[in-house]
Amino acid sequence: MSRVYNFSAGPAALPEEVLKQAQEEMVDWHGCGMSVMEMSHRGKEFMSIAAQAEADLRELMAVPANYKVLFLQGGASSQFSMVPMNLLRGKSSADYINTGSWSKKAISEAKKYCNVNVVGETPAGQFTVPAADSLQLNADAAYLHYTPNETIQGIEFPYLPESGDVPLVGDFSSTILSRPVDVSKYGVIYAGAQKNIGPAGLTVVIVREDLIGETIAGTPAMFDYQIQSEGESMYNTPPTYGWYLAGLVFQWLKSKGGLAGMAEINQRKSAALYAAIDASDFYNNPVEVNCRSWMNVPFTLADAELDAKFLADAKEAGLVTLKGHRSVGGMRASIYNAMPEAGVQALIDFMADFEKRNG
Ligand code: PLP
């Protein structure tokens, strides 16, 4: 069996080493005679797996002691509701920066619970983020929410929004673990797992302790950070296998030099791909240079009639899931942590060859 280079935006490729380790441990984990999938979440084996994964994530991200790390279900989309439910704390409004498709979804969900002030916005059809000094922040907002990396548009914030005393909330789904981040600047960091953490079905939430404990009336127990935190993310049966695989990914990241090591690799990978696109008249990336994502690289072909051929030929060459999101068109190469540099080089070589044959 030969594995392809999978450029999917999510669920995305996992490191091959992690998949092989999981395969070896699949049927009989560490001689205990059963698979992790079959273990009680309250048994000592799974408890050790869960604790190790949390400790490794804390180490990788240098999570300060006054933050809880939760391993939940429901995807990043459930955080679109959980954030207002838990963070409004008696206030009636929250600030949101709207930079694209995922910001919009977060905003429309938050509107069910509070007044949403859109304090900065990417104009329709543009691929940029609002300037830091243009944000119209409100001192009485319950929190400021933004999307550091817009997975669909391929836009990444080149700066950290300064929200003063207002807690900053980041939807890190498609950029978490791609580089070091100063967790202490945030009230909440959340991410669906299926890009840089592990399989879909797991959601990681990192939340400052003092923001936990007051929810709006009617908040379901499953959506209450305090209940989830007191229950060590085991209020109900957690997504055990996803949690275990995330733990293997965290160990893999540590073996690669942690997030500083990953950042160097990711910077090189994305720079090489953007350089190839910029050097050609045949390919184009629409994103303003200083906001180009390290993780999701959308690009178009000079002639959209060639899109289908490009995808078919790429697949033939072992490069798959390059079709762009329907709202943007063209192509999108998602090059998360698990995409090796050789995969990006294979794509660059294929693009040059395709241009030669069809340009
Ligand atoms: N936020 C961002 C930035 C995403 O990229 C995605 C999924 O691609 C989501 C939220 C939604 O995640 P989930 O499917 O885990 O709810």
From TrEMBL:
Keyword Cytoplasm found: yes
Protein name listed in UniProt: Phosphoserine aminotransferase
Alphabetized Gene3D superfamilies for the sequence: Aspartate Aminotransferase, domain 1, Type I PLP-dependent aspartate aminotransferase-like (Major domain)
Record GO biological process: L-serine biosynthetic process; pyridoxine biosynthetic process
Any one GO MF annotation of this record: O-phospho-L-serine:2-oxoglutarate aminotransferase activity
Gene source species: Sedimenticola selenatireducens
Subunit-level organization: Homodimer.
Comment on bound cofactor: Binds 1 pyridoxal phosphate per subunit.
InterPro entries: Aminotrans_V_dom, Aminotrans_V_PyrdxlP_BS, Pser_aminoTfrase, PyrdxlP-dep_Trfase, PyrdxlP-dep_Trfase_major, PyrdxlP-dep_Trfase_small
